[in-house]
Structures are given as structure tokens and as C-alpha cells.
Specification:
Helix content: 10-25%
Order of helices and strands: HEEEEEHEEHEHEHHEHE
Strand content: 25-35%
Protein name: NADPH-dependent ferric siderophore reductase
Pfam families: FAD_binding_6
Organism: Sphingobacterium zeae
Length: 238
């Protein structure tokens, strides 16, 4: 529910479980449009899984959802990797978050289907909006000795961001609509390599790219597919 009347958000805010008051302790710009924000607070009895997210109320009538990239329960720290596209209220809100800000925040929730414990190989696809999810995936994949590949379509200014985040095994492509072209996708090595035909594919980011990728995977492999598009051109607050 990205948009709703103020009275409804006020009611939900009153009824929804919240974290104790959270403080911003660090902000780092990894590029002009990618910002890492670190929060600190009492995380007792809080669970963070791969794909955990928190909904931020960014103004009186709108909320936006952001994935948690990292957490340390003992130190009370957790982080987000935020893409600032400069086009909406969520971007404006996060761009203005600064060290020392204290924010009332809902408790995290998780989509358990992101991480399939039975899968031996993973392909995680997305764009700048998917970086936080990728960062949350990495330690789990390494700890459980899974094979993995991250595929990103990124703006030119962000092509070094995955490296800055410590992500490994990354393929970076320009954001020029290649992943919406079925003929191009059908010829890529990742689609045609038998090594990845049984992989678990996690497709996020641009809805159109993710849907096209899913269609080709279904035609070419037997892998499990989880699709959760984060944005769609012309649609607000997906």
C-alpha cells in the first residue's frame, strides 16, 4: 500500500509494532545516486533474514519499502542501500536522512521465499534497487557454500558500486533495455549453460526486465524462479 489517506496511515502507525526509537549513525554515498544508511537501536528479539524489509512512512500519505542489507543484532546496527532516483517522495526522504536523525520505524518483515535452502546454485538479478538484497544474500550463500552469480543492469555511474559493497561473482550490464529483449537474453551464456539449468533464480528490480528474464528461463531451464519486481515505469510506489 504505497499510498493511502492520512487517517489510514495514522491508524496503521498506531497499531503496527515498532522498533524502539532508531538513530542514524552513518551515511555514505557510494555514488551520486546510491546511499548507504546505517541505523542503531535496541534490536533485542528482532530477526533479520535474507530479504527482510521495512516500510518507511515518507510523508503523511505515502510509504516506501526498503530491503535491509546488513544487520548486527548484538551491536544494534542495521543498514540499507538506497537508490536515489530523484523522482519521488521516497528518494527525497532518503536523500535528506542524516546522521543524528531519530526515526520511528516499523519492525522488519521478511519474504522467506527469497532463499531456497535446498538450492545449490543461485542467480540473483536486478538493478540499483536490488543491491541491498544482494548484500544480504552474500554471507548466507558463502556460509552455506552455494554457487552464486549476481547479475545487475546499472547506470554508468553505478557500475563500480557492487565492488564497493564487497559483492563477488558479478556480471554488470548497462541499463539499456538489453534484459527486455528476448532474442538477446536467449543467447546469453548463463541461459545456455547446463551448469545453471537447475539454479534458483531470484529476479528483482525492473518489472519488465525481470518478467522477460523469467520467460526465457522457463523456456531454457528447469530452475526455480522467484520474481519480485521493485518498480515499473509509470507506476508509483510499486
Amino acid at each position: 500500500m504505497p499510498s493511502a489517506p492520512k487517517w489510514l496511515f495514522d491508524t496503521l502507525e498506531f497499531l503496527t509494532p515498532k522498533l524502539p526509537l532508531i538513530e542514524v549513525v552513518e551515511t555514505v554515498f557510494l555514488s551520486k545516486s546510491v546511499k548507504k544508511i546505517c541505523f542503531k537501536g535496541d534490536l533485542k528479539d528482532i530477526q533479520f533474514a535474507v530479504g527482510s524489509f521495512i516500510d518507511f512512512r515518507v510523508n503523511d500519505t505515502e510509504a516506501r519499502r526498503y530491503s535491509v542489507s546488513y544487520s548486527d543484532i548484538e551491536k544494534g546496527l542495521f543498514e540499507f542501500i538506497i537508490y536515489l532516483n530523484g523522482k519521488g517522495c521516497g528518494s527525497s526522504f532518503m536523500a535528506n536522512v542524516k546522521v543524528g536523525d531519530k526515526i520511528v520505524m516499523y519492525k522488519p518483515r521478511a519474504l522467506s521465499r527469497y532463499y531456497d535452502k535446498t538450492a545449490r546454485r543461485f542467480v540473483i538479478f536486478g538493478d540499483e534497487t536490488s543491491l541491498a538484497l544482494a548484500v544480504s544474500f552474500l554471507p548466507v550463500l558463502k556460509e552455506n557454500k552455494r554457487q552464486f552469480l549476481f547479475i545487475f543492469e546499472l547506470d554508468e555511474e553505478n557500475k563500480e558500486v557492487p565492488k564497493l559493497l564487497g559483492l563477488e561473482n558479478c556480471l554488470i550490464f548497462p541499463k539499456n533495455f538489453l534484459f527486455s529483449k528476448e532474442d538477446w537474453l536467449s543467447g546469453t551464456p548463463i541461459i545456455n549453460s547446463s551448469d545453471w539449468h537447475e539454479a534458483s533464480f531470484v529476479l528483482t528490480g525492473n518489472v519488465k526486465s525481470a518478467q522477460t528474464f523469467r520467460k526465457i528461463i522457463k523456456e531454457k531451464s528447469n530452475g526455480n524462479i522467484y520474481l519480485h519486481g521493485y518498480w515499473l515505469e509509470g507506476k508509483k510506489g510499486l
